[in-house]
Amino acid sequence: MFQGCTTENTQVAFDALNKIGFDWDYHDRPRTGVLRHVSKSGDVLFTVRAGTQRQMDVFTIRKLADIGDDFADGHVRFTTRSNIEYMVTDEAKVAPMIVALEAEGFPVGGTGASVLMISHTQGWLHCDIPGTDASGVVKGMMDMLHKEFVQEKMPNRLRITTSCCQINCGGQGDIAINVQYTKPPNNAPHWPEVKEVVGRIVKAYKSDAKHWERMGEWIDRIGWNGFFEMTELTFTKHHLDTWTGARKTINTSAHLHF
Questions:
Q1: Using one digit for the tens of pLDDT, what is the confidence trace for 233-243?
Q2: Helix 192-208 crosses helix 134-149 at what angle (to 10 degrees)?
């Protein structure tokens, strides 16, 4: 099981990739969640990307490993967003691998103009000062955004991050969700208020942004007034930058200078 995880077999995998050559001629996406890299020598490598729940038990890891052994000769890797990627040179194995992954509940997607898997911190699982449970928030949001993960119908890729507080693991993304206080809210485990706000932003961005326009570029074009009007969100004092270095931050804005 999971042959590609041993040091020896990992080296074999890298040697195989080196033999194919990193001098790629081109790459494309035959379908959402599948990358195809073609080298100048004509060799082809397929990568199948599937979403996972990040915090996994042994049973789940074994299921993923078995799929890797059956279809990818044990050659897998995990991305920074906790997706699992299977690498295979035989195109005939791609379709049945996708069937096997989806049958076990692992959605294939997260490529191109889609909502990528949400990166997050661990929250209540191991942190000593979390104000929220990032993992639970991500579960709720990805249930809501599942269809945008398995299809490429967004204006551009959309990266969302969630952190458990504002002082340690603050996230960087097109939408970065940071908890504001250290008192845990009482809306776990589905976090409906967070899902509602993020859903509004994603819906407005998808409907109004131009082709290939990222979230930040869209907001720059319509302005913050337009953003709050389109998302029907209320502008509050919490949107003001009150950090001690805010003078420098505000001076970088196109709207305020002093």
A1: 998 877 776 66
A2: 30
**What are the tens digits of pLDDT across the range 22-50?**
688 999 999 999 999 999 888 999 999 99
Query: Own/partner pairs for 2-8, CB < 8 Å, 24+ apart?
Result: 2/65, 2/68, 2/69, 2/74, 2/76, 3/69, 3/73, 3/74, 4/68, 4/72, 4/73, 4/74, 4/75, 4/76, 5/65, 5/74, 5/76
Retrieve residue 193's tokens: 């208020």
Helices (H), ranges, 32-153:
58-71, 94-103, 134-149
Q: Which domains does the chain have, with CATH numbers?
A: 3-103 (3.30.70.3340), 119-224 (3.30.413.10)
Quick: pLDDT tens for 95-127. 999 999 999 999 999 999 999 998 887 777 777
CA-based max dimension of the chain: 63
Cα–Cα distance, 121 to 134 (Å, whole number): 6
Nearest to 75 by CA among 124, 125, 29, 11: 11
Distance, CA of 160 to CA of 146 (rounded, Å): 13
SS3 state at 108: strand
Q: Please give the backbone phi and psi of residue 91, each rounded to the nearest 5 degrees, phi first.
A: -60, -30
